[in-house]
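Q: You know discrete backbone vocabularies at least as well as I do. I have my own habits and do not want them to colour yours. No explanation is needed for now; the record alone will do.
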Amino acid sequence: MPTYYDSRNKPYDLAEQIGRGGEGEVFSCADDSGLVAKIYHEPVSEEKAGKLRWMAENKNEHLLKVAAWVIDVLYDKPDGEIVGFLMPNVHAKEIHELYSLKSRRIYFPEATWHFLVHTAANLARAFFSLHRDQHIMGDINHGNCVVLADGRVKLIDCDSYSIRRENFRYRCDVGVATHLAPELQGKDLAKIEREAAHDNFGLAVIIFQLLFLGRHPFSGNYLGAEDKSLEDCIREKRFAYGDNTDITKVEQPPGTLSLREVSPRLAAMFERAFLINDRPEPREWVEALEDFSRSLKQCGFHPGHHFYEKLAACPWCRIEGQTGLMLFPFITSPDDLAGEKPFNIFTIENLIENLGIKQNLPVKPPDLSISVPPPPSPDFIEKRKEKDKKQINTIIIQFVLILVFMIFLGIGAGVFVGVVTMIFFVISLNNPDKNLRSELNERLFDVREKWNQIEQEWSKTAVPQKVDEDLTQIRKKIDVYQNLQIEAKKNSASAQTVQDENLSIRETSGKRRMIEKEIEQLFASLRSASVHLRRHQERLLTQSELISKEILQAESDVRALGNSSAAIVALILVTFITPFAGSIIVGNSSTNINSTAYSNPYPATSESRTIGKIAEPVSLELPDEDISDFEISILSESKRKEYAENLFSQAQKSIAVPGKADYYEAEEKLRFALRFNKKDTAVLNLLGYVLYERKEYSVALVFLNRSLEIDKANSGTKLLIGMNYLEMTKLSEAISIFKKVIESNPNSSEAFYNLGLAYKGVKNYQLATESLRRAVELNPNDVNSHYELGFCLYKTGDTESTWDQYRLLLELKEESLANKLFDEADLGQGIKRGNYTTTGVPVR
């Protein structure tokens, strides 16, 4: 290998190649295991060389602590050309090998979710240190962040960063689309100066991937007609998690952690990062993640599961049950041999019991013998109506034919014709009846054949032999484990020296860990098999329920079909009875045929009135706090709206009494209400107001913007958005939205008042005065508008008008604001407060 030289002409011999990238190769240093060298493929430009020299000369302790920073440049010969640089040798794994299940089992076998949260906080700390010196990573991706065994994070590939040098910045012209901010998607990065806000987006993505086990925040099930790439979803801010599916049209993938299963603070920060441009900074992530880490609790069933303490149930148990995967290890042994804990058999038994193999498998198909038959199907009812109508018409025609022939040709002719037509009509009534019955019986036969196939498949889905074998093997391993513990105690007791005892402990420990791993693998196989079996049987159950409904429906239709016996009997009676009553029928034929009277079956109704004491209002019906998303989804739309409205009323009640408003309780009620009606703008707006009162301005904007997406013309929503911008000192945004409110509602004194405050904030006192004058005109008794107008008049030099506002404040009994204006506007100048004439001219 060639020899290279640092800035002091110290030679470095390179050893084996340990990495290769698009720009160069990385080698270990033969004489210094703590350093590695990156040698570029192509000659280094003067700008790149200057960047590397500056980074080496300006390294510091906190950068070296979190990044594989440039230690020194390397020359091809003493005082030659720069060809590469030296950096610390970092023994770590790329961060995706921690959040990816397959590689986590290999490289971080004992990592729990608590460890992933801890790592996420360390990642945020690394970015905080980088941003503190105004440097920007730029090229954020899962390969440029590496994790040490203890969860510390190092940032690598530092030579590609956007580096701040006094009043100059070396640009970063590369990036990976999966971690680029929406505004950078599809752009020429070489022409864009990177900002800390761009890093904040990429940081949020990797933190999300750590907490959600590798899931990308913008990767979900797109509900639109066209295809969307991941980059499209990022650019269009289609965040796949949270309560905004109606807007983003992307559903969260099944078998994943929900945004509601982290703390509300973290959930709001993810929404800020991915839905609006108020992205949390690294410091905020560090604080939130440390707080979240302290709020984790251990699962009662699975000791390797940790989850947010406010949740009613462990989400990892649910996800593992849905996917059949073992996400986290449940067997852990401390490194201290003497302090090893005995194996907990109850943990394994509880986990096996929680799989529900014995209780749930095989699931039984529906029992048709006890099922309640449904009413006849609508199609059949129509056919039955047609059949009945035909029978009635046939009987009427038979009667009329006999009657006509009797009138004109005599009773004998009537009898003859009646017998002939009766035979014809009986045949015509029987044939369609037979056809319909044959059709129904054929359909019934088909569905019964399907049912027989389902039953045969059910018989094959009893607990398979492999599952039985895994259960047996686990219990055998537990027995071996317990015998090993007993043997270890005997050997320890019989050991004659300390060395013999330690040797026995080490041997036992090695065997013990091996058995633990075998049990864990068997349990993983058992879980996977049980989930596969359950899914298979659930599919069969769904099919069997559908087929059973078809069978019951077909049987119900057959029963309801009946036969044509009644119609045939009626034909016979009409044929043979009519001639014997011929003379009477003939004599009254016109009356019988033409004088049928129909009475109104609906009696007249009178207005009903309720007289008596008005009932006391009943208490609002509220949903169970532990109701699941599935239970909500099967509620009727009217019930969901009712629950949302009732929770909204409860929230209003929480903040109704001035000075005693409980905004935290109101927020909880309103967030709960959104689970039942995500598009309820009243709930979204009140939640925005509650968060405004709690000074959670950026979070309030998330919900208010969601409300505005639904109702773009709502000036009240816009006013609240502007008030939040005002508190966040985003004054240009506040001015813009207050103007829009005034365009749609020119008589809104609140809009003019707040617009005046925004203009005051940017020190445009002339425009502030105009807005506040309008606010006072619309609401003459608003003391705050008078005070602000007086202050802005003072700033424009209109002292006389300032005195007018001072006088009005005193007349409105608002002495404290009047005195404040007197002092701030310097109205004293030898005049005592309150000494003015009725025209507002001061008395000296």
Remarks:
- Confidence is low (pLDDT under 50) at residues 332-343, 358-363, 583-618, 835-844.
